[in-house]
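Memo subject: From amino acid sequence to discrete backbone structure tokens
Keywords: amino acid chain, backbone geometry, structure tokens, three-dimensional fold.
Body of memo: The sequence and its backbone structure tokens, given next.
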Amino acid sequence: MRQKIVAGNWKLNLLQKEARTLTKALVKHTIENAPNAEVVLCVPHLYLEKGNNWTYGSSIKISAQDCSQHSSGAFTGEVAARQISSVGATYVLIGHSERREYFKEDATLLTAKIKQALESGLTPILCCGESLEVRKKETHVEFVSGQLTQVFGNLDNTEIASLVIAYEPIWAIGTGETATPEQAQSMHQAIRNVVQVSTTEKIANEIRILYGGSVKPNTAPELFGQSDIDGGLVGGASLNVDDFCKIIDAA
């Protein structure tokens, strides 16, 4: 049975004192309530080591929000996957829609980042998702399938099996709109089919696929109850300790 993941993506938010206070509250909650889900905090790079220290003694995992496609060298401002791993993080987001849109990241770049992450012992959370325009044209399945197959084509089965996939409909990120449980389940099932075609039925059945896009305490239970949804990548609600704890408990 696939263990669910509830990952909070802080994005470009929280000063150090705020980050520590939030993390310590989450540590207290997870120790006292022993959630069924794996809890992951996707934090800005400067909080990676601190986050690992703040969560000591708990089951919470720390994730970076991105990594470089390079392992070292003259790349000012970049952070290598092996550096991220060296300070205790275990996950890294790859290809979030904001990275794809604002920084023009394509499949070739994302594949290189995934390989760096895997070589460094990190678990990549590969993001995918469609715009409202694509959804209205009803070509969302083809679009998201294309995002994945372009990356999968340069990975072997073992590498694909090592991924977590996060489906985030772009039209639902930060908008308050959420895909219905039926819409989300349909896309997650399609994504699992893409994995099966690209690899094997066993890998497809074991890979974890998260839903992201305005996940809230009132929407989480039904979303997480769908057969192909293995948890959530949570944005805004992960910055509110009460909301995030309720989402964790819903998994």
Notes: The chain is about 45% helix and 15% strand. The radius of gyration is 17 Å.
